[in-house]
Amino acid sequence: MSLDRHLAEIAREYPDWTIWRSDAGRWWATRHHPLSLTEREAGLAMTIDADTPEGLREQLVDQRERAASLEPDP
Question: For residue 74, what pLDDT is reported?
Answer without folding.
Answer: 62
